[in-house]
Every structure is written in structure tokens, then in C-alpha cells.
Design goal:
alpha+beta, 17% helix, 2 domains, 3-stranded antiparallel beta sheet, 1 helix, globular, 34% strand, Immunoglobulin-like
């Protein structure tokens, strides 16, 4: 009889643990889906210094480490894309300015301009080239911009 009551007690305890676990899971708040920041950026590109600049015109503050920045020239991706933030990276002159620089605070706020210069080991800008930049997060595209160098 002792073995039966031991088994019954174990089964009852297991049932209580399962029910309690299910109650905790059901009461836990659902994870919020990631949302794309609402931010206005503007783009400039200069052929002479092979410089690309993005200015935060307003909207949500961006966390630079969460961004992926892709640059195309005349519809073709750069040979090397910028790994923002960075200080020295293949295909770029050292020391980008503003939020793209790894020494920056990491928060890109309205009024701040992020710049980078393409090194000679990367695609170069010629006058009249079409330059487009896509900025995205894991949640989706923040903006796609195009300008002429």
C-alpha cells in the first residue's frame, strides 16, 4: 500500500507542477513585435571626395548598432558595404563622422549627420552617378534614398 500512495503522491505533485507552469505561461505578457522606426533621413553624395552623408531630419532616434546600411552606385552595390558603426573598415577612409563613428554615443538623433568616405579600394563616385542608400533594422526598411553625386 505504501508504494501505491507514493506513486499517487508523485503523480499529484507532477500534476500541480504542470498546472502551475501552464498558468505562469498563460499570464506572461506576449512579446511585442519589433517595429520599424519612423525616421526622416536625407542623403547627399559628393564625387570629388567620394563622400556619402545621411542627415537625421526628424522622427525616432535610431540605435546605430541595430542598423544595416547598404549603398549602391548606379544600381550596383559597393564593393565593400559600411559596417556601421566603425572607425576603420575595408573600403572606407578611417574616421567616419557622426553616428557612423564607433566613438559616437550610438544614438542617432534629429539634427545629426553621419558621413563616410569611400576608399580607393571601394567603388568610386563620378559626377552624375546615381547613389542610393537603404537603411534597415531587423524589423524592416527605415528608408531608401537616392541622389546624384
Amino acid at each position: 500500500m505504501r508504494a501505491v500512495s507514493s506513486v499517487v503522491g508523485t503523480v499529484a505533485l507532477l500534476g500541480v507542477v504542470v498546472v502551475a507552469g501552464a498558468a505562469v505561461f498563460a499570464a506572461a505578457p506576449a512579446a511585442e513585435p519589433a517595429t520599424v522606426p519612423t525616421t526622416r533621413l536625407s542623403l547627399t553624395a559628393e564625387a570629388g571626395p567620394d563622400r556619402v552623408a545621411l542627415t537625421h531630419e526628424g522622427g525616432d532616434t535610431l540605435t546605430v548598432a541595430a542598423l544595416d546600411v547598404a549603398v549602391q552606385v548606379n544600381g550596383a552595390p559597393l564593393t565593400h558595404q559600411p559596417p556601421v558603426p566603425f572607425f576603420a573598415a575595408t573600403g572606407f577612409e578611417s574616421g567616419p563622422t557622426g553616428p557612423f563613428n564607433s566613438a559616437h554615443s550610438g544614438r542617432w538623433r534629429a539634427g545629426e549627420t553621419a558621413t563616410l568616405r569611400l576608399a580607393s579600394t571601394n567603388t568610386q563616385l563620378d559626377p552624375g552617378d546615381s547613389v542610393s542608400v537603404t537603411v534597415r533594422t531587423d524589423a524592416g526598411v527605415v528608408t531608401r534614398l537616392e541622389t546624384v553625386a
